[in-house]
UniProtKB/TrEMBL annotation:
This is Dynamin-type G domain-containing protein. GO terms for molecular function: GTP binding; GTPase activity; microtubule binding. Residues 1-220 form the Dynamin-type G domain. It comes from Dorcoceras hygrometricum. The lineage of its organism: Eukaryota, Viridiplantae, Streptophyta, Embryophyta, Tracheophyta. Keywords: GTP-binding, Nucleotide-binding. The keyword Glycoprotein does not apply. Pfam families: Dynamin_M, Dynamin_N. One of its GO terms (cellular component) is microtubule.
């Protein structure tokens, strides 16, 4: 929900989701949210991480943005996925992790605060409670012992507690606030709680103050991140080619690109400098080429060893000599036998150079 102070006495209320803007009014907010929720998440009990934004422009309201996260469900009911708890936890952690966020921990007055799952999750990202504020709802339903709960602070809520009364039935906002004020003024137990810890107006004021203090704290870092991102984008933009309006400019740009490519090839192929591709090992050409040459050498030797195994030692040579017998001088190797053996050896390794060439990564060329 995004609250915005509006000068006009007539409030403006509308929903935004999936690029749609749906106007509504205070009386029909609940129905409009239900209809939009069904459109986003379906008619079952599933959830969706698609944001549904309620924008309220009204005179006198604080400028404040609040995110209402889904309640934690451990056991899926009919129509919910088996990992419903993991999905909800992931959504919650996504929104409460940023240091700029104020964690508004909503607790029921009737429960034991030390057993609340939401407190455990908020403590994961805000161990000291520096940006966690607890809102205790249904104070009128369980007033017994509430004062002790919010003053003892057994769960280390750094920003303290604010107790509120929920709106009941068709009560208007003004009616609900009047009844709430009366409750904390007249109730024998609730009236003992400090007035700085009760009521929706107090909660709104506390949130505005906390948000302002967090903005003051985080703004320098936010500005630094914006400037760093801007500088990085400007550097990337300056690397882009300029608008080319003539053939001469295009040729100049092309020659510049060609020169850069040639220099990169010299670095990785000749000088063995890989600073441009420190993490891309395929571009470390000299090292890869040495590996490939070693593999090629091993392949040639393995082919030779196969043909010269002990079992086949000189068998082919003797067979070829027998087949090339002829009338001639003794102890002279027939030329035909020599050529036959040479051709066999050549055929055994002639495919290796082609295989070696095909193994080259295309990025080398």
């Amino acid at each position: 929900m995004r609250l915005q102070n509006h000068l006009s006495p007539q409030p403006e209320i509308f929903l935004e989701f999936d690029g749609k803007v749906l106007p509504t009014d205070e009386e029909n907010i609940s129905n409009a949210i239900s209809a939009a929720t069904e459109e986003i998440a379906g008619h079952g009990k599933g959830i969706s991480d698609t944001p549904l934004t309620l924008i309220v422009k009204k005179k006198g309201v604080p400028d404040l943005t609040m995110v209402d996260l889904p309640g934690i469900t451990r056991v899926p009911v009919h129509g919910q996925p088996d990992d419903i708890y993991e999905q909800i936890s992931r959504i919650i952690m996504e929104f409460i992790t940023p240091e700029e966020s104020v964690i508004l921990n909503v607790l029921s007055a009737s429960v034991d605060f030390t057993t609340c799952e939401s407190i455990r999750m908020s403590q994961k990202v805000d161990k000291n409670g520096e940006r966690t504020l607890a809102v205790v709802t249904k104070a009128d339903k369980a007033p017994e012992g509430l004062l002790e709960k919010v003053t003892a602070d057994d769960v280390n809520i750094g920003l303290g507690y604010v107790c509120v009364r929920n709106r009941i039935g068709d009560e208007s906002y003004d009616e609900a606030r009047a009844l709430e004020a009366t409750l904390f003024e007249t109730h024998p137990l609730l009236s003992t709680i400090s007035k700085s810890m009760v009521g929706i107006p107090v909660l709104a004021q506390r949130l505005v103050q906390i948000q302002a203090s967090i903005i003051v704290k985080c703004l320098p870092d936010i500005i630094r991140k914006i400037n760093d991102k801007l500088s990085a984008n400007m550097e990337d933009m300056n690397k882009l080619p300029k608008n080319l309006s003539s053939v001469a400019e295009a040729m100049t740009a092309f020659m510049h690109v060609l020169g850069c490519a040639k220099e990169s090839l010299r670095k990785i192929l000749i000088r063995g400098e890989f600073d441009e591709y420190s993490d891309v090992f395929e571009m470390h050409c000299t090292a890869r080429l040495a590996e490939m040459l070693n593999q090629y050498s091993d392949q040639l030797q393995s082919k030779t060893k196969e043909s010269e195994s002990k079992h086949n030692f000189l068998r082919d040579e003797i067979k070829d000599l027998e087949e090339t017998k002829a009338i001639g001088l003794p102890n002279f190797l027939p030329r035909t036998a020599f050529l036959v053996q040479l051709q066999k050896k050549f055929k055994g390794i002639y495919s290796a150079p082609f295989e070696f060439r095909c193994c080259f990564p295309t990025s080398f060329f």
